[in-house]
Protein backbone atom coordinates (compact mmCIF):
# COMPACT_ATOMS: atom_id res chain seq x y z
CA UNK A 1 0.00 0.00 0.00
CA UNK A 2 1.34 3.44 -0.79
CA UNK A 3 -0.42 5.86 1.49
CA UNK A 4 -1.02 9.27 0.07
CA UNK A 5 -1.56 12.53 1.74
CA UNK A 6 -5.29 13.23 1.70
CA UNK A 7 -7.62 15.29 3.79
CA UNK A 8 -7.43 13.76 7.24
CA UNK A 9 -10.80 13.33 8.84
CA UNK A 10 -11.35 11.61 12.17
CA UNK A 11 -14.57 9.69 12.24
CA UNK A 12 -14.95 10.87 15.83
CA UNK A 13 -15.76 14.16 14.21
CA UNK A 14 -18.20 12.84 11.64
CA UNK A 15 -21.23 14.10 13.47
CA UNK A 16 -24.33 15.55 11.90
CA UNK A 17 -23.42 18.96 13.30
CA UNK A 18 -19.92 19.62 12.01
CA UNK A 19 -17.93 22.62 13.17
CA UNK A 20 -19.05 25.56 11.04
CA UNK A 21 -16.82 26.43 8.13
CA UNK A 22 -14.78 23.22 8.16
CA UNK A 23 -14.90 21.88 4.59
CA UNK A 24 -13.74 18.41 5.54
CA UNK A 25 -16.51 18.04 8.09
CA UNK A 26 -19.46 19.57 6.31
CA UNK A 27 -21.89 17.83 4.01
CA UNK A 28 -21.24 18.27 0.30
CA UNK A 29 -18.18 18.81 -1.89
CA UNK A 30 -14.90 18.29 -0.05
CA UNK A 31 -16.75 17.10 3.04
CA UNK A 32 -19.01 14.21 3.91
CA UNK A 33 -21.37 12.51 1.52
CA UNK A 34 -24.34 10.34 2.34
CA UNK A 35 -24.38 6.82 0.94
CA UNK A 36 -28.16 6.99 1.00
CA UNK A 37 -30.91 9.33 -0.17
CA UNK A 38 -30.94 11.50 -3.28
CA UNK A 39 -27.16 11.95 -3.34
CA UNK A 40 -26.64 8.20 -3.64
CA UNK A 41 -28.88 7.59 -6.68
CA UNK A 42 -25.77 6.72 -8.65
CA UNK A 43 -23.31 5.16 -6.21
CA UNK A 44 -20.67 4.57 -8.90
CA UNK A 45 -20.54 8.30 -9.68
CA UNK A 46 -20.55 9.17 -5.99
CA UNK A 47 -17.58 6.86 -5.32
CA UNK A 48 -15.62 8.60 -8.08
CA UNK A 49 -16.42 12.01 -6.56
CA UNK A 50 -15.24 10.70 -3.19
CA UNK A 51 -12.04 9.36 -4.74
CA UNK A 52 -11.31 12.80 -6.23
CA UNK A 53 -12.07 14.59 -2.99
CA UNK A 54 -10.53 12.22 -0.43
CA UNK A 55 -8.34 9.67 -2.19
CA UNK A 56 -8.34 5.94 -1.51
CA UNK A 57 -10.34 6.02 1.74
CA UNK A 58 -13.24 8.43 2.22
CA UNK A 59 -15.45 9.39 5.15
CA UNK A 60 -19.16 8.86 4.44
CA UNK A 61 -22.47 8.71 6.27
CA UNK A 62 -24.77 5.69 6.39
CA UNK A 63 -28.51 5.94 7.09
CA UNK A 64 -29.27 8.13 10.13
CA UNK A 65 -25.92 9.80 9.35
CA UNK A 66 -23.93 7.09 11.08
CA UNK A 67 -20.22 7.67 10.25
CA UNK A 68 -18.27 5.16 8.22
CA UNK A 69 -15.25 4.98 5.96
CA UNK A 70 -15.53 3.60 2.46
CA UNK A 71 -12.37 2.03 1.05
CA UNK A 72 -12.07 2.99 -2.63
CA UNK A 73 -8.52 1.92 -3.47
CA UNK A 74 -7.75 -1.56 -4.77
CA UNK A 75 -4.54 -1.88 -2.71
CA UNK A 76 -6.18 -0.41 0.39
CA UNK A 77 -9.12 -2.83 0.18
CA UNK A 78 -6.72 -5.75 -0.14
CA UNK A 79 -4.55 -4.49 2.69
CA UNK A 80 -7.59 -4.22 4.97
CA UNK A 81 -8.99 -7.71 4.32
CA UNK A 82 -5.53 -9.26 4.61
CA UNK A 83 -4.63 -7.60 7.92
CA UNK A 84 -6.61 -9.44 10.61
CA UNK A 85 -4.32 -8.00 13.29
CA UNK A 86 -5.62 -4.52 12.44
CA UNK A 87 -9.14 -5.07 11.12
CA UNK A 88 -11.88 -7.46 12.20
CA UNK A 89 -15.36 -8.29 10.92
CA UNK A 90 -16.73 -8.38 14.49
CA UNK A 91 -19.16 -5.44 14.67
CA UNK A 92 -19.28 -5.57 18.47
CA UNK A 93 -16.32 -3.17 18.63
CA UNK A 94 -17.89 -0.56 16.31
CA UNK A 95 -17.91 2.77 18.15
CA UNK A 96 -21.22 4.16 16.75
CA UNK A 97 -22.92 0.94 17.87
CA UNK A 98 -21.39 1.08 21.35
CA UNK A 99 -22.32 4.76 21.60
CA UNK A 100 -25.98 4.07 20.72
CA UNK A 101 -25.90 5.98 17.41
CA UNK A 102 -27.17 2.93 15.52
CA UNK A 103 -30.86 2.41 16.25
CA UNK A 104 -32.24 -1.14 16.44
CA UNK A 105 -34.38 -0.44 13.35
CA UNK A 106 -31.43 0.81 11.29
CA UNK A 107 -31.97 -0.44 7.71
CA UNK A 108 -28.51 -2.03 7.70
CA UNK A 109 -29.13 -3.88 10.97
CA UNK A 110 -29.31 -7.32 9.27
CA UNK A 111 -25.72 -6.71 8.12
CA UNK A 112 -24.61 -4.93 11.30
CA UNK A 113 -25.92 -7.27 14.00
CA UNK A 114 -23.24 -9.69 15.11
CA UNK A 115 -24.13 -13.35 14.56
CA UNK A 116 -22.34 -16.57 15.47
CA UNK A 117 -21.26 -17.18 11.87
CA UNK A 118 -17.89 -17.45 10.17
CA UNK A 119 -18.38 -14.11 8.40
CA UNK A 120 -18.33 -12.31 11.76
CA UNK A 121 -15.83 -14.50 13.59
CA UNK A 122 -12.07 -14.23 13.78
CA UNK A 123 -9.08 -16.18 15.01
CA UNK A 124 -9.65 -19.72 16.27
CA UNK A 125 -13.41 -19.36 16.22
CA UNK A 126 -13.28 -18.30 12.57
CA UNK A 127 -11.05 -21.28 11.80
CA UNK A 128 -13.49 -23.63 13.51
CA UNK A 129 -16.62 -22.32 11.77
CA UNK A 130 -15.05 -21.73 8.37
CA UNK A 131 -13.31 -25.10 8.59
CA UNK A 132 -16.72 -26.79 8.83
CA UNK A 133 -18.06 -24.84 5.83
CA UNK A 134 -15.01 -25.42 3.62
CA UNK A 135 -14.83 -29.05 4.78
CA UNK A 136 -18.43 -29.59 3.66
CA UNK A 137 -17.83 -27.69 0.41
CA UNK A 138 -14.86 -29.87 -0.50
CA UNK A 139 -17.09 -32.94 -0.47
CA UNK A 140 -19.02 -31.56 -3.44
CA UNK A 141 -18.28 -33.54 -6.57
CA UNK A 142 -17.84 -31.00 -9.36
CA UNK A 143 -18.89 -33.39 -12.10
CA UNK A 144 -22.27 -33.96 -10.52
CA UNK A 145 -22.50 -30.27 -9.71
CA UNK A 146 -22.02 -29.41 -13.37
CA UNK A 147 -24.63 -32.03 -14.29
CA UNK A 148 -27.14 -30.51 -11.85
CA UNK A 149 -26.49 -27.02 -13.18
CA UNK A 150 -26.94 -28.20 -16.77
CA UNK A 151 -30.14 -30.06 -15.94
CA UNK A 152 -31.65 -26.99 -14.25
CA UNK A 153 -30.72 -24.79 -17.22
CA UNK A 154 -32.73 -27.21 -19.38
CA UNK A 155 -35.70 -27.16 -17.01
CA UNK A 156 -35.72 -23.36 -16.85
CA UNK A 157 -35.28 -22.79 -20.60
CA UNK A 158 -38.04 -25.33 -21.29
CA UNK A 159 -40.41 -23.08 -19.37
CA UNK A 160 -40.08 -20.22 -21.84
CA UNK A 161 -38.41 -21.49 -25.03
CA UNK A 162 -41.72 -21.94 -26.89
CA UNK A 163 -42.83 -18.40 -26.10
CA UNK A 164 -40.17 -16.59 -28.12
CA UNK A 165 -39.66 -14.11 -25.30
CA UNK A 166 -38.55 -14.14 -21.67
CA UNK A 167 -37.27 -12.07 -18.81
CA UNK A 168 -33.84 -13.57 -18.18
CA UNK A 169 -33.69 -12.13 -14.65
CA UNK A 170 -37.08 -13.27 -13.31
CA UNK A 171 -37.25 -16.50 -15.27
CA UNK A 172 -33.62 -17.56 -15.35
CA UNK A 173 -30.89 -15.73 -13.39
CA UNK A 174 -33.00 -15.50 -10.23
CA UNK A 175 -33.85 -19.21 -10.42
CA UNK A 176 -30.77 -21.13 -11.49
CA UNK A 177 -28.56 -20.38 -8.43
CA UNK A 178 -31.41 -21.16 -6.03
CA UNK A 179 -32.17 -24.46 -7.75
CA UNK A 180 -28.50 -25.44 -7.61
CA UNK A 181 -28.02 -24.32 -4.00
CA UNK A 182 -31.12 -26.27 -2.88
CA UNK A 183 -29.62 -29.32 -4.60
CA UNK A 184 -26.19 -28.80 -2.97
CA UNK A 185 -27.67 -28.28 0.47
CA UNK A 186 -29.75 -31.43 0.12
CA UNK A 187 -33.24 -29.98 -0.22
CA UNK A 188 -34.05 -30.15 -3.95
CA UNK A 189 -37.76 -30.43 -3.17
CA UNK A 190 -37.74 -27.01 -1.50
CA UNK A 191 -36.70 -25.38 -4.79
CA UNK A 192 -39.55 -23.60 -6.47
CA UNK A 193 -41.08 -20.18 -7.06
CA UNK A 194 -41.90 -19.85 -3.38
CA UNK A 195 -38.33 -20.04 -2.06
CA UNK A 196 -37.01 -17.83 -4.90
CA UNK A 197 -39.68 -15.27 -4.09
CA UNK A 198 -38.93 -15.50 -0.34
CA UNK A 199 -35.19 -14.94 -0.87
CA UNK A 200 -35.78 -12.00 -3.23
CA UNK A 201 -38.34 -10.50 -0.89
CA UNK A 202 -36.01 -10.83 2.07
CA UNK A 203 -33.16 -9.20 0.18
CA UNK A 204 -35.39 -6.33 -0.94
CA UNK A 205 -36.31 -5.68 2.69
CA UNK A 206 -40.04 -5.23 1.93
CA UNK A 207 -42.65 -5.30 4.68
CA UNK A 208 -42.97 -9.07 4.23
CA UNK A 209 -39.20 -9.58 4.52
CA UNK A 210 -39.42 -10.91 8.07
CA UNK A 211 -41.94 -13.62 7.21
CA UNK A 212 -39.96 -14.49 4.07
CA UNK A 213 -36.84 -14.85 6.20
CA UNK A 214 -38.79 -17.05 8.61
CA UNK A 215 -39.95 -19.27 5.76
CA UNK A 216 -36.34 -19.87 4.73
CA UNK A 217 -35.05 -20.30 8.28
CA UNK A 218 -37.81 -22.87 8.98
CA UNK A 219 -36.92 -24.85 5.85
CA UNK A 220 -33.23 -24.85 6.81
CA UNK A 221 -34.01 -25.76 10.44
CA UNK A 222 -36.06 -28.76 9.27
CA UNK A 223 -33.27 -29.83 6.94
CA UNK A 224 -30.61 -29.55 9.66
CA UNK A 225 -32.75 -31.60 12.10
CA UNK A 226 -33.36 -34.31 9.49
CA UNK A 227 -29.67 -34.61 8.66
CA UNK A 228 -28.68 -34.60 12.32
CA UNK A 229 -31.03 -37.57 12.76
CA UNK A 230 -29.98 -39.28 9.57
CA UNK A 231 -26.99 -37.95 7.62
CA UNK A 232 -26.91 -38.33 3.85
CA UNK A 233 -24.40 -37.42 1.15
CA UNK A 234 -24.93 -33.68 0.95
CA UNK A 235 -23.45 -30.38 2.14
CA UNK A 236 -25.78 -30.17 5.16
CA UNK A 237 -24.90 -33.67 6.40
CA UNK A 238 -21.18 -32.92 6.10
CA UNK A 239 -21.68 -29.65 7.96
CA UNK A 240 -23.59 -31.39 10.75
CA UNK A 241 -21.10 -34.23 11.14
CA UNK A 242 -17.94 -32.11 10.75
CA UNK A 243 -15.50 -32.60 13.67
CA UNK A 244 -15.80 -28.85 14.42
CA UNK A 245 -19.02 -29.88 16.21
CA UNK A 246 -21.37 -27.09 15.14
CA UNK A 247 -24.44 -26.59 17.33
CA UNK A 248 -27.94 -26.71 15.77
CA UNK A 249 -28.05 -22.90 15.72
CA UNK A 250 -24.63 -22.70 14.10
CA UNK A 251 -25.62 -25.23 11.46
CA UNK A 252 -28.84 -23.40 10.64
CA UNK A 253 -27.14 -19.98 10.52
CA UNK A 254 -24.36 -21.25 8.25
CA UNK A 255 -26.88 -22.90 5.94
CA UNK A 256 -28.59 -19.52 5.76
CA UNK A 257 -25.35 -17.66 5.03
CA UNK A 258 -24.38 -20.11 2.34
CA UNK A 259 -27.85 -20.20 0.75
CA UNK A 260 -28.50 -16.47 0.76
CA UNK A 261 -24.98 -15.14 0.06
CA UNK A 262 -24.46 -17.69 -2.69
CA UNK A 263 -27.90 -17.08 -4.13
CA UNK A 264 -27.77 -13.30 -4.28
CA UNK A 265 -24.20 -13.02 -5.53
CA UNK A 266 -24.56 -15.70 -8.17
CA UNK A 267 -27.93 -14.44 -9.42
CA UNK A 268 -26.40 -10.96 -9.82
CA UNK A 269 -23.37 -12.37 -11.60
CA UNK A 270 -25.42 -14.47 -14.00
CA UNK A 271 -27.73 -11.56 -14.86
CA UNK A 272 -24.76 -9.22 -15.34
CA UNK A 273 -22.92 -11.59 -17.66
CA UNK A 274 -26.07 -12.24 -19.70
CA UNK A 275 -26.65 -8.51 -20.05
CA UNK A 276 -23.05 -7.93 -21.04
CA UNK A 277 -23.08 -10.66 -23.64
CA UNK A 278 -26.28 -9.19 -25.09
CA UNK A 279 -25.33 -5.54 -25.05
CA UNK A 280 -21.69 -4.64 -24.55
CA UNK A 281 -19.98 -3.63 -27.80
CA UNK A 282 -16.60 -4.61 -26.30
CA UNK A 283 -17.85 -8.17 -26.01
CA UNK A 284 -19.45 -8.14 -29.42
CA UNK A 285 -16.21 -7.00 -30.99
CA UNK A 286 -14.16 -9.53 -29.07
CA UNK A 287 -16.65 -12.31 -29.46
CA UNK A 288 -16.87 -11.73 -33.19
CA UNK A 289 -13.11 -12.04 -33.31
CA UNK A 290 -13.61 -15.25 -31.37
CA UNK A 291 -11.21 -14.47 -28.54
CA UNK A 292 -13.63 -14.31 -25.62
CA UNK A 293 -14.85 -17.47 -23.96
CA UNK A 294 -17.75 -17.48 -21.54
CA UNK A 295 -15.47 -17.93 -18.48
CA UNK A 296 -13.54 -14.88 -19.63
CA UNK A 297 -16.78 -12.94 -20.00
CA UNK A 298 -17.64 -13.99 -16.42
CA UNK A 299 -14.26 -12.78 -15.14
CA UNK A 300 -14.60 -9.46 -16.95
CA UNK A 301 -18.01 -9.02 -15.33
CA UNK A 302 -16.51 -9.76 -11.89
CA UNK A 303 -14.18 -6.80 -12.53
CA UNK A 304 -16.77 -4.43 -13.98
CA UNK A 305 -19.82 -5.27 -11.88
CA UNK A 306 -18.85 -7.25 -8.77
CA UNK A 307 -22.00 -8.97 -7.46
CA UNK A 308 -21.41 -7.49 -3.99
CA UNK A 309 -20.59 -3.81 -4.56
CA UNK A 310 -19.64 -3.38 -0.91
CA UNK A 311 -19.48 -5.64 2.13
CA UNK A 312 -20.55 -4.36 5.52
CA UNK A 313 -17.98 -4.12 7.20
CA UNK A 314 -14.54 -4.28 8.75
CA UNK A 315 -13.70 -2.57 12.06
CA UNK A 316 -10.39 -1.14 13.24
CA UNK A 317 -8.98 -3.02 16.24
CA UNK A 318 -6.47 -0.27 16.93
CA UNK A 319 -5.59 3.19 15.77
CA UNK A 320 -4.05 2.90 12.33
CA UNK A 321 -3.60 4.57 8.97
CA UNK A 322 -5.16 3.54 5.67
CA UNK A 323 -4.91 5.39 2.35
CA UNK A 324 -3.57 8.47 4.10
CA UNK A 325 -6.47 8.61 6.56
CA UNK A 326 -6.12 8.26 10.29
CA UNK A 327 -8.43 5.47 11.38
CA UNK A 328 -9.45 5.35 15.04
CA UNK A 329 -9.94 2.18 17.05
CA UNK A 330 -13.59 1.15 16.66
CA UNK A 331 -14.11 2.91 13.29
CA UNK A 332 -16.07 1.00 10.66
CA UNK A 333 -14.88 0.59 7.06
CA UNK A 334 -16.82 -0.67 4.06
CA UNK A 335 -14.92 -3.25 2.02
CA UNK A 336 -15.88 -2.02 -1.44
CA UNK A 337 -15.15 -4.22 -4.49
CA UNK A 338 -17.09 -1.95 -6.90
CA UNK A 339 -14.93 1.19 -6.56
CA UNK A 340 -11.85 -0.90 -5.73
CA UNK A 341 -12.10 -2.77 -9.03
CA UNK A 342 -12.12 0.48 -11.03
CA UNK A 343 -9.30 2.15 -9.09
CA UNK A 344 -7.34 4.05 -11.80
CA UNK A 345 -4.12 2.81 -10.23
CA UNK A 346 -4.94 -0.76 -11.31
CA UNK A 347 -7.17 0.09 -14.27
CA UNK A 348 -6.05 3.31 -15.93
CA UNK A 349 -8.14 2.33 -18.97
CA UNK A 350 -11.51 0.89 -18.03
CA UNK A 351 -12.21 -0.21 -21.59
CA UNK A 352 -9.15 -2.48 -21.63
CA UNK A 353 -10.18 -6.10 -21.14
CA UNK A 354 -8.83 -7.90 -18.10
CA UNK A 355 -8.42 -11.28 -19.81
CA UNK A 356 -6.43 -13.69 -17.64
CA UNK A 357 -6.31 -11.30 -14.69
CA UNK A 358 -8.24 -12.59 -11.67
CA UNK A 359 -6.98 -10.08 -9.14
CA UNK A 360 -10.34 -8.34 -8.79
CA UNK A 361 -11.96 -7.92 -5.39
CA UNK A 362 -15.29 -9.62 -6.19
CA UNK A 363 -14.62 -12.57 -3.88
CA UNK A 364 -12.85 -10.60 -1.16
CA UNK A 365 -9.49 -11.74 0.14
CA UNK A 366 -7.62 -12.67 3.29
CA UNK A 367 -9.07 -15.05 5.88
CA UNK A 368 -12.69 -14.34 4.84
CA UNK A 369 -12.17 -14.78 1.10
CA UNK A 370 -15.21 -16.43 -0.45
CA UNK A 371 -14.93 -20.22 -0.17
CA UNK A 372 -17.70 -20.76 -2.73
CA UNK A 373 -16.22 -18.91 -5.68
CA UNK A 374 -15.73 -21.97 -7.87
CA UNK A 375 -19.39 -22.85 -7.42
CA UNK A 376 -20.46 -19.28 -8.26
CA UNK A 377 -18.26 -19.31 -11.35
CA UNK A 378 -19.53 -22.75 -12.45
CA UNK A 379 -23.18 -21.66 -12.20
CA UNK A 380 -22.50 -18.49 -14.19
CA UNK A 381 -20.34 -20.23 -16.83
CA UNK A 382 -22.74 -23.08 -17.46
CA UNK A 383 -25.80 -20.86 -17.06
CA UNK A 384 -24.67 -18.49 -19.81
CA UNK A 385 -23.25 -21.19 -22.02
CA UNK A 386 -26.35 -23.39 -21.89
CA UNK A 387 -28.71 -20.52 -22.55
CA UNK A 388 -26.74 -19.48 -25.63
CA UNK A 389 -26.72 -23.09 -26.84
CA UNK A 390 -30.48 -23.33 -26.55
CA UNK A 391 -31.28 -19.84 -27.83
CA UNK A 392 -28.46 -18.77 -30.11
CA UNK A 393 -30.55 -16.01 -31.67
CA UNK A 394 -31.48 -14.46 -28.32
CA UNK A 395 -31.42 -10.67 -28.31
CA UNK A 396 -32.36 -7.86 -26.01
CA UNK A 397 -36.02 -6.86 -26.36
CA UNK A 398 -35.67 -3.24 -25.25
CA UNK A 399 -33.22 -0.39 -25.50
CA UNK A 400 -30.26 -0.92 -23.24
CA UNK A 401 -30.94 2.50 -21.68
CA UNK A 402 -34.37 1.24 -20.56
CA UNK A 403 -32.92 -1.48 -18.32
CA UNK A 404 -33.56 -0.83 -14.63
CA UNK A 405 -31.41 -1.66 -11.62
CA UNK A 406 -32.27 -1.71 -7.97
CA UNK A 407 -29.26 -0.45 -6.08
CA UNK A 408 -28.22 -0.55 -2.47
CA UNK A 409 -24.85 -0.08 -0.80
CA UNK A 410 -24.40 -3.87 -0.84
CA UNK A 411 -25.35 -4.72 -4.41
CA UNK A 412 -26.77 -3.66 -7.73
CA UNK A 413 -29.43 -5.98 -9.09
CA UNK A 414 -30.79 -5.89 -12.63
CA UNK A 415 -34.58 -5.76 -12.31
CA UNK A 416 -35.48 -7.31 -15.68
CA UNK A 417 -33.68 -8.49 -18.80
CA UNK A 418 -36.35 -8.84 -21.52
CA UNK A 419 -35.23 -10.87 -24.53
CA UNK A 420 -36.76 -12.25 -27.71
CA UNK A 421 -35.82 -15.18 -29.96
CA UNK A 422 -37.46 -17.54 -32.41
CA UNK A 423 -39.65 -19.98 -30.46
CA UNK A 424 -37.87 -23.31 -29.91
CA UNK A 425 -39.16 -26.73 -28.89
CA UNK A 426 -38.56 -28.06 -25.40
CA UNK A 427 -35.69 -30.48 -24.83
CA UNK A 428 -35.21 -33.53 -22.71
CA UNK A 429 -33.71 -32.18 -19.48
CA UNK A 430 -31.20 -35.03 -19.40
CA UNK A 431 -29.83 -34.05 -22.82
CA UNK A 432 -26.94 -31.65 -23.32
CA UNK A 433 -28.32 -28.22 -24.11
CA UNK A 434 -28.16 -27.73 -27.82
CA UNK A 435 -29.62 -26.14 -30.82
CA UNK A 436 -32.56 -27.73 -32.53
CA UNK A 437 -31.97 -27.22 -36.24
CA UNK A 438 -33.19 -23.71 -36.93
CA UNK A 439 -32.80 -21.97 -40.22
CA UNK A 440 -32.97 -18.34 -39.34
CA UNK A 441 -30.08 -15.96 -39.02
CA UNK A 442 -28.08 -15.61 -35.87
CA UNK A 443 -27.48 -12.20 -34.45
CA UNK A 444 -24.03 -10.70 -34.43
CA UNK A 445 -22.66 -12.10 -31.21
CA UNK A 446 -20.58 -15.17 -30.92
CA UNK A 447 -19.14 -16.76 -27.88
CA UNK A 448 -16.20 -18.98 -28.47
CA UNK A 449 -12.83 -19.48 -29.97
CA UNK A 450 -12.09 -18.29 -33.50
CA UNK A 451 -14.52 -18.97 -36.30
CA UNK A 452 -13.20 -18.66 -39.84
CA UNK A 453 -13.16 -15.29 -41.50
CA UNK A 454 -16.06 -14.89 -43.91
CA UNK A 455 -15.32 -14.79 -47.59
CA UNK A 456 -15.00 -11.20 -48.76
CA UNK A 457 -18.45 -9.95 -49.61
CA UNK A 458 -19.77 -6.90 -51.32
CA UNK A 459 -21.86 -5.95 -48.30
CA UNK A 460 -19.75 -5.67 -45.13
CA UNK A 461 -22.82 -6.06 -42.91
CA UNK A 462 -23.82 -9.26 -44.67
CA UNK A 463 -20.29 -10.57 -44.30
CA UNK A 464 -20.33 -9.88 -40.59
CA UNK A 465 -23.58 -11.73 -40.23
CA UNK A 466 -22.35 -14.65 -42.27
CA UNK A 467 -19.32 -14.96 -40.04
CA UNK A 468 -21.46 -15.71 -37.07
CA UNK A 469 -24.64 -17.03 -38.62
CA UNK A 470 -23.00 -20.43 -38.72
CA UNK A 471 -25.90 -22.84 -39.13
CA UNK A 472 -25.62 -26.09 -37.24
CA UNK A 473 -25.01 -27.96 -40.45
CA UNK A 474 -22.17 -30.14 -41.66
CA UNK A 475 -21.22 -27.67 -44.39
CA UNK A 476 -19.99 -25.30 -41.70
CA UNK A 477 -16.21 -24.98 -42.10
CA UNK A 478 -14.14 -26.58 -39.40
CA UNK A 479 -13.17 -23.91 -36.87
CA UNK A 480 -9.59 -22.72 -36.88
CA UNK A 481 -7.22 -24.48 -34.52
CA UNK A 482 -7.26 -23.13 -30.98
CA UNK A 483 -4.53 -20.63 -30.28
CA UNK A 484 -1.65 -21.97 -28.19
CA UNK A 485 -2.49 -21.53 -24.53
CA UNK A 486 -6.19 -21.08 -25.29
CA UNK A 487 -8.39 -21.78 -22.33
CA UNK A 488 -11.62 -23.74 -22.31
CA UNK A 489 -13.15 -23.84 -25.82
CA UNK A 490 -16.05 -21.49 -26.37
CA UNK A 491 -19.68 -22.44 -26.45
CA UNK A 492 -19.97 -22.45 -30.21
CA UNK A 493 -16.89 -24.58 -30.69
CA UNK A 494 -17.99 -27.05 -28.04
CA UNK A 495 -21.38 -27.16 -29.67
CA UNK A 496 -19.81 -27.95 -33.04
CA UNK A 497 -17.65 -30.64 -31.50
CA UNK A 498 -20.65 -32.17 -29.80
CA UNK A 499 -22.73 -31.91 -32.98
CA UNK A 500 -20.07 -33.69 -34.96
CA UNK A 501 -19.50 -36.21 -32.21
CA UNK A 502 -15.86 -35.48 -31.41
C1 LIG B 1 -20.52 -15.09 -7.76
C2 LIG B 1 -20.75 -15.61 -6.62
C3 LIG B 1 -20.17 -15.13 -5.31
C4 LIG B 1 -19.56 -13.95 -4.96
C5 LIG B 1 -19.29 -12.75 -5.84
C6 LIG B 1 -19.21 -14.05 -3.57
C7 LIG B 1 -18.56 -13.04 -2.86
C8 LIG B 1 -18.22 -13.12 -1.52
C9 LIG B 1 -17.60 -12.07 -0.77
C10 LIG B 1 -17.23 -10.70 -1.31
C11 LIG B 1 -17.43 -12.52 0.50
C12 LIG B 1 -16.93 -11.74 1.71
C13 LIG B 1 -15.45 -11.69 1.85
C14 LIG B 1 -15.08 -10.87 3.08
O1 LIG B 1 -15.79 -10.87 4.07
O2 LIG B 1 -14.03 -10.23 3.04
C15 LIG B 1 -17.95 -13.87 0.55
C16 LIG B 1 -17.95 -14.65 1.68
C17 LIG B 1 -18.52 -15.90 1.73
N1 LIG B 1 -19.09 -16.60 0.68
FE1 LIG B 1 -19.23 -15.98 -1.23
N2 LIG B 1 -19.60 -15.26 -3.10
C18 LIG B 1 -20.18 -15.96 -4.13
C19 LIG B 1 -20.69 -17.24 -4.10
C20 LIG B 1 -20.67 -18.05 -2.99
C21 LIG B 1 -21.13 -19.42 -2.97
C22 LIG B 1 -21.67 -20.15 -4.19
C23 LIG B 1 -20.98 -19.86 -1.69
C24 LIG B 1 -21.28 -21.21 -1.10
C25 LIG B 1 -21.55 -22.27 -1.78
C26 LIG B 1 -20.42 -18.76 -0.90
C27 LIG B 1 -20.13 -18.82 0.44
C28 LIG B 1 -19.53 -17.80 1.16
C29 LIG B 1 -19.23 -17.90 2.60
C30 LIG B 1 -19.56 -19.06 3.53
C31 LIG B 1 -18.59 -16.69 2.96
C32 LIG B 1 -18.05 -16.29 4.34
C33 LIG B 1 -16.58 -16.70 4.45
C34 LIG B 1 -15.89 -16.26 5.73
O3 LIG B 1 -16.32 -15.27 6.32
O4 LIG B 1 -14.91 -16.89 6.10
N3 LIG B 1 -20.25 -17.69 -1.73
N4 LIG B 1 -18.42 -14.21 -0.70
UniProtKB/TrEMBL annotation:
**Where do Low complexity bias regions lie?**
458-483
Which PROSITE patterns does its entry note? CYTOCHROME_P450 (PS00086)
CDD domains in alphabetical order: CYP_unk
Q: Where is this region: Disordered?
A: 1-30, 447-485
Question: What Gene Ontology molecular function terms does this protein carry?
Answer: heme binding; iron ion binding; monooxygenase activity; oxidoreductase activity, acting on paired donors, with incorporation or reduction of molecular oxygen
InterPro entries tied to this protein: Cyt_P450_B, Cyt_P450_CS, Cyt_P450_sf
The UniProt entry's sequence similarity note says:
Belongs to the cytochrome P450 family.
Q: What is this protein called?
A: Cytochrome P450
Organism ancestry: Bacteria, Bacillati, Actinomycetota, Actinomycetes, Kitasatosporales
